[in-house]
Amino acid sequence: MLQKYPSSLLENAVNEFARLPGVGRKSALRLALHVLRWTNGEVEAFADAITDMKGNVHYCRVCHNICDAEICNICEDKARDAATVCVVESIKDVMAIENTGQFHGLYHVLGGIISPMDGVGPADLQIDSLVQRAKSSPIKEIILALSTTMEGDTTNFYIFRKLAGIDVKISVIARGISVGDELEYTDEITLGRSILNRTEFNESFKYNS
User: Fold this and answer.
1) What SS3 class is residue 4?
2) DSSP secondary structure string, 22-44?
């Protein structure tokens, strides 16, 4: 049944909230009504935060994490282990691994994984920049910390082949994470142990999930 709204302005707000991932029409209506109860100052602060984020957030020119400057705080941190780089699918994965407190190296955010079904190929990801980092930086180990799905394993194998001939150790997180799991939904203890107990990557890992 088509929802009827007492106000076209409310309906417009609901339509915009419903564009957010995981937000259905009922949730969008609750959010819109909640915002309607805010003071003008609270609404302006909310709108300003979204506008500032969209207009001023940068992507780190080294690792492609989000940041407020050209280079993120992690890449700038001299206390981090610059010889170890953890390759992840998304910014959410960086946050998940950081929350474990078990990894003290740097990151490289691919911006996705290879998925022909979704029209995502290697050229759509930050793989070439990873290869350039491996060639030009003092990196000794690259940890492939992608989701344990077929798409994740395909991406792992592609990166492994692209890095062939470069003097760098390539490892993969331990399979304490269930096959098919997305990294961002893994609990911190399991994720932390998977990082610490990583194993060297080789061609035998292809599609082993």
Assistant:
1) coil
2) T--HHHHHHHHHHHHTS-HHHHH
Residue of 187, 110, 193 whose CA lies nearest to 146: 110
At 77, the amino acid letter reads D
- Right CATH for 75-205 from 3.30.43.10, 3.40.50.720, 3.40.1360.10, 3.40.50.1580: 3.40.1360.10
User: What's this model's pTM, rounded to 2 decimal places?
Assistant: 0.78
For residue 183, with 0-12 CB atoms within 10 Å meaning exposed, 13-18 middle and 19 or more buried, which class applies?
A: buried
Per-residue pLDDT tens over the stretch 102-135? 899 999 999 999 999 999 999 999 999 999 999 9
3-state secondary structure of 205: helix
Is pLDDT of 89 > 70? Answer: yes
